[in-house]
Amino acid sequence: MTDPISLALVGLGTIARNQHLPSLADTPTLALKAIASRNAGLDGLPSYHDIDALLGAEPDIQAISLCTPPQGRFNQAAAAIRARRHVMLEKPPGASVAEVQALADMARAAGVTLFATWHSREAASVEQAREMLQDATITSVQIHWKEDVRHWHPGQEWIWQPGGLGVFDPGINALSILTRIMPEPVHVTAASLEVPANKQAPIGATMQMVSASGIPVSAVFDWRQTGPQTWDIIVETSAGTITLRNGGAQLFDGDTQLVQAEDTEYRRLYARFAELIAAGQSDVDLSPLQLVADAFLLGERIEVAPFHE
Ligand code: NAP
Predict the structure, then answer these.
(1) Is 291 left (phi over 0), alpha (psi -120 to 50) or beta?
(2) pLDDT surpassing 70 at residue 142
(3) Most buried of 27, 80, 186, 219 (most Cβ within 10 A)?
(4) For the Gfo/Idh/MocA-like oxidoreductase N-terminal domain, which residue ranges apply (predicted)?
(5) Is 167:231 a contact under the CB 8 Å cutoff?
């Protein structure tokens, strides 16, 4: 067996601790060797204040996983690519579509791997749903993505700032599943953005989309849902209803449950990152980010009550 690829993680926050660290520990093809985070480090590993310090001090680290907020991620990724390191991006891959396209061009020119991850695409039911829909006659799709921002994002101010996406931060997970399971592209025709009077990003949003052949797709995103949380995609076909529930962890054909599996999304992402590096390939699909960008372009802005934690 070849040596594992040495990797450093940048931005030791919520998702890095909850998902990246345990998943890396379970990925034999990658070895975590260092951390860069302004306010955090890990015992037993070299820790640096920022990525520039890390890149200068660790020439043997081959790959960088960026777990920072999307704003500012371009400069970090660009520095890593310039230093000829492979780069894995948390979702959303950047704060704008064009900046990630620029990174893809830079990675190609540098001969390194760029992996723009969409963890929800690794949910247990997504590939099966995609296969079921390839030859189906789809008549409509509805997305219901409603959660409690106070529970999931306490103290995260970046998420409310320009480039933070607001409720599209979770909503883009639904759009990443949508763009994977639909047999043809979709585009936005209308949107509404409910923006708290004291914030820059929406707390609620709706989107109307349509596929190339005219299939209507609607989405409702809401960060004000307390109690049970809702992460469902309902696909109506001429043969019945296919439903992905709980963020794609469960799949139903009518009332019959086809899939119920434990969450291995980030383990699958890291295994794929190592495979892409070994194959000398990149994977950068910006279609979910493009849909969100277009919702901001076309969206009617509605001011709503100020948000306080
Ligand atoms: P977070 O808890 O705020 O952690 C991000 C970390 O990045 C911070 O702890 C911070 O560490 C570092 N950082 C660098 N520049 C920063 C800046 N300008 N503002 C704030 N932090 C900065 O955020 P997160 O929830 O882990 O999310 C990070 C990324 O993962 C986002 O793109 C998010 O969409 C994605 N994600 C999050 C979740 C989730 O459930 N939380 C799930 C899936 C994906 P230092 O202060 O030590 O530098």
Answers:
(1) alpha
(2) yes
(3) 80
(4) 6-115
(5) no
pLDDT at 262: 87
Task: Write the pLDDT tens digit of every residue in 264-279.
Answer: 999 999 999 999 999 9
Given a cut of 80, whether residue 1 has pLDDT beyond it is: no
Which amino acid residue places its CA nearest to atom 14 of ligand 1? Answer: 68
Please write the tens of the pLDDT for every residue from 250-263.
999 999 999 988 89
Structural domains counted in the chain: 2
- Residue with CA at minimum distance from ligand 1 atom 40: 15
Cα distances from 114 to residues 31, 78, 236, 274, in angstroms, run 18, 11, 35, 11
Same domain, 178 and 78: no
Going by their DSSP bridges, the two strands 138-146 and 186-196 should be labelled as unpaired
pTM listed for this prediction: 0.98
Task: Tell me: do 65 and 128 sit in the same domain.
Answer: no
Q: Strand pairing of 250-253 and 216-222?
A: unpaired
- Measured in Å, residue 233 CA sits from the centre of ligand 1 at 26
Q: Provide residues with CB under 6 Å of ligand 1.
A: 11-16, 37-40, 67-70, 72, 90-91, 119, 152, 156, 158, 169
Tell me: the pLDDT tens digits for 64-105?
999 999 999 999 999 999 999 999 999 999 999 999 999 999
What is the Å distance from ligand 1's center to 48 Cα?
16
Q: Is 199 a catalytic residue?
A: no
pLDDT at 252: 98
- pLDDT, mean of residues 290-306: 98
Residue 145 maps to which CATH number?
3.30.360.10
Whether residue 206 is contained in a domain is answered as yes
